[in-house]
Amino acid sequence: MIRWWISSFQLAELFISSVVHLLYGFYVYSTAVAADLSQALSECVFKSNVSLEVKKQDPSKSTVDDLPPIVLVHGIFGFGKGKFGSFSYFGGAEKKDERVLVPDLGSLTSIYDRARELFYYLKGGRVDYGEQHSKTCGHSRFGRIYEQGKLNVPPFWHYPQWDEDHPIHFVGHSAGAQVVRVLQQMLADKAFEGYENTSENWVLSITALSGAFNGTTRTYLDGMLPEDGQNMKPLCLLQLCRLGVIIYDWLDIPLLKAYYNFGFDHFNLSWRKAGLWGLVDCLLGNAGPWATGDWILPDLTIQGSIKLNSNLQTFPNTFYFSYATKRTRKILGVTVPSGILGIHPMLFMRVLQMSLYRYPTDVPPPYKGYRDEDWQDNDGALNTISMTHPRLPIEHPSCSIVNDSDCQPLQPGIWYYKIVEADHIFFILNRERAGVQFDLMYDNIFERCRKHIFRKTSQTLPNEAP
C-alpha cells in the first residue's frame, strides 16, 4: 500500500513538473514571437526615421574594435543572439557595453561539444569536434562554418584576431561557466588542429553566474541514476525531454529550427538523413547523443563534473569570479525555501525538493566525504556549494567576498566568490523581475572587466608597487 502511494505521488509530481515546464517554454516562445512582431511593425511604420538615424552614425568615432570582447555564454536550454528573435537570454545585459558577444551554442549538447563550437564562433572556420571524440560519440566530425564578412548573415566569425595579445573576458551562466573552463583548458592543451599557438592566456577573465562547477543533485531528481551519473531512469522528466527533442529534431522544420535549435545537428537526427528507422533507433535509445552520453545532463551530475574537473586547471594569469545563488534558509536546523514571492513559480518546488534530497544509502556516494547537509542550500537548479568555485575532486584557490570591492586589488589565479540571494533564473530572461539588482550586478561585472582587470607585464609602472 505504501509503495502504491509513493508511485502515485511520483507520477503526479512528474505530470505537474512536465506541465509547468511546457507552459513556461510556451510563455518564453510566445513572448519572443510577440516581441518580434511588434518590432517588425515598428520598423515598417517608422522605416524612414530608422534610415535617417543610420546615416547620422559616424563609424570613425567608434573605438569598439579596440576593446577586448566580453562574451556571454548561456546555460542549459539557453540561446544566443540570433535565436528567439529579439528575445535576450541575458535580459538585455549585452546592451550595457559596446563590445559584447552572445554566441548561440547547443542548448542540450555536451560541455565538450559546446566548448568546441565556442572556439570557432570566435576564431572562425568550420567547427571541428575532433576525430577521436566524434567516432566515440557517434556523430559527424565537422559542424557549421563561420565565414568572414556577410555581417548580419550568420554564421560569421566574431573575433578572428583572438590570441594571447588580444584576450577575451568570458561571463558564463550555469553550465556556460563550465563550458568556458573546458575551452580554456583546450587552449592550454593546444587541442585545436591547425592552431598550434593557443594558450590559456587567450582568456583574460572568467565570471560565473550560478556556475555549474561541481554538478547538481537536481540531475538525480530529474531522472539521472545516482549509481553512475550517466544513465536515466525508465520513467522520468528527462526521458520525456529526450522524446520531445528527438521528435523536434527529426521533423526538422526549418522555421522552428531557425528560431530555436537544441544543437544536435551533427548527430544527423533529421528525417532527411536518419529516415524512419533512425527515428525508431533514437526513440529506443540505440542511437543519438543519449546512447553515447554525449549530451549535457551527464556532465551536470556530480560524477560527471568530477570527471570533467579532473582535467581542468585554474591558471595563474587569469582572473576568476563567481556569483553563487541561493534561495534557502534554515529554520530550526531545517533547510527550507526562503519565502515564496522571491522564487520563480517554476523553481519553488525544485528548491524544496533539492533542500530535502537525500543521496540513496544503497549506492556508493559520488565522492569520499559527501554529506547531504552540504548540498541542501540551492537556487532551484544548482546547489550553492557547487557554484562557489571548483572544489571536486580537488579544491581550487578561492576567496569568499561580501562586496565586489572586497577583492581589490585583484589577484589572478584565485576564485573570488560571492553568495547572492537569488534563484537560478533571477539574472536572465526577465530583467524587470530582478529590478535594480540586475543593473547593479551586470554593471559591476562590466566595470571590473573594463577598469580593473589587466594582464601585468614584466615591467613595473611608475605608480605600481613592485
UniProtKB/TrEMBL annotation:
Gene Ontology MF term list: hydrolase activity
Keyword Transmembrane helix belongs to the record: no
Subcellular location: Secreted
Primary site of residence: secreted
Matching Gene3D superfamilies: alpha/beta hydrolase
Record-annotated Lipase-like C-terminal domain positions: 69-193
Keyword Ligase (UniProt): no
Biological process terms in GO annotation: lipid metabolic process
GO cellular component: extracellular region
Keywords noted in UniProt: Hydrolase, Lipid metabolism, Secreted, Signal
Domain of life: Eukaryota
Pfam families (UniProt xref): Lip_C
Protein name: Lipase-like C-terminal domain-containing protein
